[in-house]
Amino acid sequence: MSPSSTPEAALPEESPEVVLEVEDLVKHFPLKEGLIFKRQTGAVQAVDGVSFQLRRGETLGIVGESGCGKSTLAKLLMRLEEPDSGAVRFRGEDFLAMRGEALRRMRRKIQIIFQDPYTSLNPRMSVGDIVAEPFKLHPEAKPAIGVRKRVKELLDVVGLNPDHINRYPHQFSGGQRQRIGIARGLALNPDVIICDEPVSALDVSVQAQVMNLLKDLQGEFGMSYIFIAHDLSVVRHISDRLAVMYLGKLAELGTDHELYGAPAHPYTQALLSAVPVPDPTMRGQRQEIVLQGDPPNPADPPSGCRFRTRCWKATEICITEEPELIVRPGVTQQVACHHAEPNTAVSAEDH
Amino acid sequence: MTELNKAHTVVPAGDPAPSPAPKASAQKDASLWMDTWRSLLRNPWFVVSATLLVMLIAVALFPQLFTDHNPRDCPLSRSRQEPSAEHWFGTDIQGCDYYTRVIYGAGNSMAVGVIVTLSILVLGSLLGLLAAYFGGWVDAVLMRLTDLIFAIPYMLGALVFLAARQERSVWDVAFILIVFTWPTMARLMRGSVLAVINNDYVTAARALGAGPLTIMRRHIIPNSLGPVVGYAAVYTGVIIGAEATLTFLGVGLQLPAISWGLQLNDAQSYLQQMPHLLTFPLIFVALTVFAFTTMGEALRDALDPKSKKR
Amino acid sequence: MTTAPQNTSAQHSRSDVAGNGPLLEVKDLHVEFRTKHGVAQAINGLNFTLEAGETLAILGESGSGKSVTAQTIMGILDMPPGHIAGGEIRYRGQDLLAMKPEQRRRLRGVSISMIFQDALSSLNPVLPVGWQIAEMFRVHQKMRRRPARQRAIELMRRVGIPAAERRVGDYPHQFSGGMRQRIMIAMAIALNPDVLIADEPTTALDVTVQAQVMRLLKELQTENNMGLILITHDLGVVADVADKIAVMYAGRVMEAADVYDIYARPGHPYTQGLLESLPRIDAAGERLNAIPGLPPSLTDMPPGCPFSPRCPYATDLCRSELPGLLPIVAEHTSACHFRDDMYRGRLQTPEEAQA
């Protein structure tokens, strides 16, 4: 069924096909010094060996704190940045090798939704023109019913009044602008939509509207989402599987149930325990792991395990040997930790 | 729970038109350009400067509509007259009707101002756009070039180069001014483009496979040209002043051309006896510079995207 | 909040210095913004009290007036366009709004202090952080350079900055976001204020760092017996640290109560809506109960209850008459016509009532 041979943890037998396969993706940004003759003095290891698979109709959440490389990962998957090495296969085809016309056609299949509804829409273009832009750039995908009619349909699908097609972005609220961005992302019927923090700029009540919309659209059109966010509650709500990223690497990868129920990587455990629960009766009831300090500089990551400088479990082996992302004893998810151990005390599941 | 959920959640889906941002509900198709126009009309300075400019441009284009005299009809018999009902601004040394001379002088001054501004607007914007969009060595080379030219004050540069020429037409003066002033526009445009280029809508277009030309045309230029256009209008006033100054100093336009600078130059010898020869062209230069500068300020205010947020 | 003081046991560190009354009391405060598009009513009759050692969370979405509240109390509201249209802000019985600017300025930072969301833009980029902290002592306590610097180092150590002696000369950009927030906290608590206003103090921070900073704030509050006003949109943070909550919407307090009561039994449909629309880490994949529609424009308020256009329970009464903020039970007030039914879980939507 799947064209790949990479082992995936605990996949149900009837899993749908793999749409997107990422293998050992690496992107380092060189740091240069000097006015005219620049010499490289180091490199920010933004993404450093990330692998995962995305199946049809599923949502893969990618969580991590600022600077962990999740946004760079999104750019690599959109081919807005070129990776240093690694592979991205889209339905088995090598996405990174594509050039020219092939690349242009492939871009239809992967779309992106941005975080900031105020910078993601061109203020000088009407909503109709914004949502129609994909058809302008991909004339071969022009709908039979006519662009304008299709744009109105799309506006309706995302919950906007189709009669507002001639309005301009500044006439809409943040949540409505986000819906416009989603309509643009849907226009070409993509197979994969990368959602880069799509609700973090929105108010709680509006955030819920947009998250419901994203879920409804997935139910209706069956596309896959890569949902990048820093808010674990939001990610939990929308994702089927989850990848936790730390300093350019995946720390843990598994199903929603595995990671929230029995997180095995110390970093995942700390992240989970730090998320405040909106229930005052839980005060002091949950185990709190408060990490010391800040994430290290990605230009100079620690040797061995990157998390070891903030980890309470770190030992000699963590300094010398980098832990692989594999299924560890006692758990079903993949964990990149020598001392992986499921912790249900910080579990977010109701027991 | 699920029953209750449904009752609630039908609402957002079934109500596809959460009312638009109420501020804008009155206007249907309010593009930013329309908003700009409306806010301009509300600005009294814009109205004043626009009226003044329309008049000055009419004077420059059709001077014959504003006077019955011929500027070259100069009988020495009526030289050096004070302003009177017959000759509103009096007459000059040669006996030309001074009002007519001043009216005809508008053409050359405006021509220099408009030619220079339009040229540097196109040239500067283009180079600024290229520098900002492509960055890297294109940016480095272009910006070092602007530094080089910035190092020479433009009046000094124009003075030196124009003094070296025997014959100087409107085009010569304009050319020299273009050479020394385009970097200002290029710098301005570069900054303006850099502010726009990192917006997500540009990234979105790139992700859709749009090429550089499409991105510049559709996304970057419409959003970055505003401040540059406003500044260009201000700059027209500056250039008109510069032309008058150069001509006054004797390195600008030459006789038999008619221009305010030349009139000022002539008048300086007779400042004591006939101050009106200096006053009238000076008032026109001042009015023109004022009109362009005020217009530019008004445009800049109206086009500033920051005042439009929300 | 019209509730009686809760923590009267707490000793008032400076109660002998000034007058009587609660530590901070806001009475019927009205703030407007006079803009080109009309008068925006940012705050419409705000009431609350804060006692020493107590944490009041002011919870609201953008445009609810929560940040304007903070700025008005601090006296740093931009005027114009801001305009205080009425009300009182009493600090230990003295009305801040009636004070002379000079008198008020002397309270700022000394008695009432504030920390902001964006530490990077709140710190001066060209001065070392130690210098900026020490300045508090030099200006307000006329301390000499050396001892002030020594105090700055102690404070930096207290707020958890590693190697404080070495870092005292560093500039703001050399610190991470969480460390900068700590430095701002150090400046805010330098002079042992009675009231600390924290405006979205952890919104810009990562979740692990957020936990550190909130813990620090709580510790410092207990140590100095400060009244803490926490301005936030985050229902999770509130549940973790607040004693009482005021929920703001469209410039009004919709509901105010003890933190345990409000989460267990919300007395206003808006509060209920917020709680239900929140994705929770301890509940997977269910559909969220989003509140439909958008908050009203502050220049164009609907008649009656401002939440009525979005409220599933709204009746004609709600659309015509503005409900007052009245008690349901002691220490739990709500601005809903049906506050009692809401509180007891008996409120039905008009459709349900018909069925």
TrEMBL record, chain A:
One of its GO terms (biological process) is peptide transport. Residues 20-272 form the ABC transporter domain. Keywords: ATP-binding, Nucleotide-binding, Transport. The keyword 4Fe-4S does not apply. The keyword Transport applies. Gene3D superfamilies: P-loop containing nucleotide triphosphate hydrolases. PROSITE patterns: ABC_TRANSPORTER_1, ABC_TRANSPORTER_2. One of its GO terms (molecular function) is ATP binding. CDD domains: ABC_NikE_OppD_transporters. PANTHER family: D,D-DIPEPTIDE TRANSPORT ATP-BINDING PROTEIN DDPF-RELATED (PTHR43776:SF7), TRANSPORT ATP-BINDING PROTEIN (PTHR43776). Belongs to the ABC transporter superfamily. This is Dipeptide ABC transporter ATP-binding protein.
TrEMBL record, chain B:
Keywords: Cell membrane, Membrane, Transmembrane, Transmembrane helix, Transport. GO terms for biological process: transmembrane transport. Residues 1-25 are annotated as: Disordered. The keyword Membrane applies. It is a multi-pass membrane protein. The chain crosses the membrane at residues 44-62, 111-135, 141-163, 170-189, 232-258, 278-299. Pfam families: BPD_transp_1, OppC_N. CDD domains: TM_PBP2. Residues 106-296 form the ABC transmembrane type-1 domain. It is found in: Cell membrane. One of its GO terms (cellular component) is plasma membrane. Belongs to the binding-protein-dependent transport system permease family. This is ABC transporter permease. It comes from Nesterenkonia sphaerica. The lineage of its organism: Bacteria, Bacillati, Actinomycetota, Actinomycetes, Micrococcales.
UniProtKB/TrEMBL annotation, chain C:
Residues 1-21 are annotated as: Disordered. It is found in: Cell membrane. It is a peripheral membrane protein. Residues 24-275 form the ABC transporter domain. One of its GO terms (biological process) is peptide transport. It holds the Pfam family ABC_tran. SUPFAM superfamilies: P-loop containing nucleoside triphosphate hydrolases. SMART domains: AAA. This is ABC transporter ATP-binding protein. It comes from Nesterenkonia sphaerica.
